[in-house]
Design brief:
Number of strands: 13
Low-confidence stretches: none
Distance between the termini: 25 Å
Largest sheet: 11 strands, antiparallel
Mean pLDDT: 78
Helix content: under 10%
Structural class: mainly beta
Length: 179
């Protein structure tokens, strides 16, 4: 089965905290996933609008878009990756946009790819995974796949310019049925 060709857009902006918080609330609901980072840690929480308060950088993503942010001198440098064209507003397209959207290989089913997350389940409830290279428990319990025997995978789309992958857009956390 041939994939239909989609167009992906990548935009950038620099936003004050209140504008970014409003935008996050408008673009993402509680079904969105997040990867957040700061100097002393990282986490995979479910989306909450107050992520900006305690995390200096991160990514929130769902099937419609991914928004990345990094704190920068009282503001946030922001990237928006989406298949929906943005007209006007605060975002400007990055060089090379638009891009062709693809999955890792055309032979794979769309839901069978993804970046494997770390860990081996270490409790009977399936809420905690351990990885010896990381000095703490990994908790993916905010996500519906948390009761599976393996940690979830990060599903993604590739944004290509010709044959070159320019961006990897995270889509969602999915159960890994291949382990």
């Amino acid at each position: 089965m041939a994939d239909e060709t989609k167009t992906g857009y990548v935009y950038h902006a620099e936003l004050p905290p209140d504008e970014l918080a409003t935008m996050l609330a408008q673009l993402f609901d509680t079904n969105a996933a997040a990867i957040v980072r700061r100097v002393n840690g990282a986490a995979f929480p479910s989306f909450k609008p107050n992520l900006l308060d305690e995390w200096s950088e991160g990514q929130v993503f769902n099937d419609k878009a991914e928004l990345r942010w990094r704190r920068k001198a009282g503001k946030f440098a922001v990237l928006l990756l989406t298949e929906e064209k943005q007209e006007g507003g605060v975002f400007r397209p990055v060089k090379g946009a638009p891009f062709t959207v693809a999955f890792p290989t055309r032979e794979e089913k769309r839901d069978s790819h993804g970046l494997l997350l770390w860990g081996t389940r270490s409790d009977k409830a399936g809420k905690c995974w351990r990885e010896t290279r990381i000095p703490r428990s990994l908790n993916y319990s905010d996500f519906p796949v948390a009761d599976s025997k393996a940690p979830p995978r990060l599903s993604y789309k590739l944004y290509r310019e010709g044959e070159t992958v320019r961006w990897v857009r995270l889509v969602n956390l999915v159960e890994d049925t291949n382990r």
